[in-house]
Structure to design on (326 residues):
């Protein structure tokens, strides 16, 4: 009897030890405290101004959830580099137009759009020395756009809305820096591009807008899912800093323009011209999902992604939506 009781006691002790040991081992699998964070932009775009304002005032660093976190700021100038950085875990937060994020997700990067910086209507430029005033006037002319971008999608949507197709033009695929030179030297007649390139041509007098449509570019904040899920509180801090910047920008437009001009090394007149075209009050919501899905469908149909995605299910994360409301 005593032996049986001793055996039972031993089993209880061993079980308790294993439970405690297992608990400790389980804790070792918990995410380690975040020590570093990389926040980046895709190229220089005025749509990312909330990021630039928040960075200028050090609102990322001073948020309680980011205290003690070493923040690295980067600028990428091509999407493959962004995809590679996300894949390697070297990038956690990206500010870009919506389509680069859609492409990254569709091609395998586990990221989520968690906030919107702004929305702006797509503009199409024509050289000022040409008499054309509408897109039909440009039929057969050389029109530049960067393939597979938000501007490419918007251009095709605008053309479809007026019964035209890209084959009605001599479409030339060019990156913004190359297209800028081609536009100013007269090698292309028109250009579908984003701010501040549009306004640089307007202010210089070398370009003017032709009548377009209602296609919009959304500038978004995308987060790696690992960062979002393992460090949600810190991710909320990043989103809060952006919302703080957006609110401040609406209340202090002239100061915000000065900061954007300085951070992006732009002529203040260019920023002033572009500013009213941007809706800084827009927030991520269900209402934006159809537009994002149309863009994902466009990219898949154009064979720009490995597969199409369900934007609502696979890309958009609305968990911060309530904190972004005015």
């Amino acid at each position: 009897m005593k032996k049986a009781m001793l055996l039972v006691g031993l089993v209880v002790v061993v079980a308790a030890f294993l439970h405690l040991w297992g608990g400790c081992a389980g804790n070792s699998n918990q995410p380690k405290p975040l020590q570093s964070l990389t926040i980046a932009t895709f190229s220089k775009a005025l749509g990312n101004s909330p990021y630039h304002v928040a960075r200028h005032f050090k609102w990322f660093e001073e948020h309680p959830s980011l205290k003690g976190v070493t923040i690295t700021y980067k600028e990428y100038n091509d999407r493959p580099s962004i995809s590679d950085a996300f894949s390697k875990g070297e990038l956690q937060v990206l500010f870009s137009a919506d389509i680069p994020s859609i492409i990254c997700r569709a091609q395998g990067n586990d990221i989520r759009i968690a906030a919107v910086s702004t929305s702006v209507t797509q503009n199409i430029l024509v050289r000022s020395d040409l008499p054309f005033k509408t897109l039909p006037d440009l039929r057969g002319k050389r029109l530049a756009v960067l393939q597979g971008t938000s501007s490419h999608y918007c251009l095709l949507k605008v053309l479809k809305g007026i019964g035209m197709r890209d084959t009605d033009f001599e479409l030339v695929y060019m990156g913004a820096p190359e297209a800028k030179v081609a536009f100013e030297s007269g090698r292309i007649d028109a250009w579908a591009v984003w701010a501040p390139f549009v306004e640089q041509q307007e202010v210089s007098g070398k370009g003017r807008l032709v009548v377009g449509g209602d296609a919009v570019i959304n500038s978004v904040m995308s987060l790696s899912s690992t960062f979002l899920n393992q460090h949600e509180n810190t991710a909320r801090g990043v989103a809060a800093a952006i919302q703080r910047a957006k609110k401040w920008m609406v209340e202090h437009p002239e100061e915000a323009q000065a900061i954007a001009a300085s951070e992006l090394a732009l002529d203040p007149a260019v920023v002033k011209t572009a500013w009213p075209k941007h809706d800084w009050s827009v927030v991520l919501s269900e209402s934006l999902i159809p537009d994002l899905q149309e863009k994902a469908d466009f990219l898949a149909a154009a064979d720009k992604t490995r597969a199409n995605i369900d934007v609502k299910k696979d890309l958009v994360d609305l968990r911060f939506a309530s904190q972004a409301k005015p």
Notes: The mean pLDDT is 89.
